[in-house]
Amino acid sequence: MSTPRFPDSAAVFVISVAAELAGMHPQTLRQYDRLGLVSPHRTPGRGRRYSARDIEQLREVQRLSQEEGVNLAGIKRILELENEVHELRSRLAQVEEDRRRAGRPAATLRRRLFAAGPAGDIVSVPMGRPFSDPGTALVLWRPRS
Fold first, then answer.
1. SS (H, E, C) the chain
2. Does 141 score more than 70 pLDDT?
3. Lowest mean pLDDT among 7-16, 53-62, 94-103, 112-121
């Protein structure tokens, strides 16, 4: 009989098992949860359940703290930024996939020009073609550094 496989995001580990897998004391996991560093899933009875992804994140918190000397506030910010980058990369991949399905190469996504339309809405202006609304000027704006 084979061992059942769970997705990395499946919250299956109770706090004592998660602490052992991460090489930490359960109280440390509770503290990290209170600080918002690693937030496990909750059961209806409010018990904590950790996923394999949570355990990897616990190990990363420990590494940043012990090996890199980063304080917990810095670690929290690092994790927030890493999660944001991950989310943005996922969104970009989805946009590129949508473009591919629509029959347009992803490179055209990077070569688009946008302008304010007559109603103040944002409109796409094809590159190399003049803006088709007569009496409307297109101005290039670059913020000052």
1. CCCCCCCCCCCCECHHHHHHHHCCCHHHHHHHHHHCCCCCEECCCCCEEECHHHHHHHHHHHHHHHCCCCCHHHHHHHHHHHHHHHHHHHHHHHHHHHHHHCCCCCHHHHCCEEEECCCCCEEEECCCCCCCCCCCCCCCCCCCC
2. no
3. 112-121
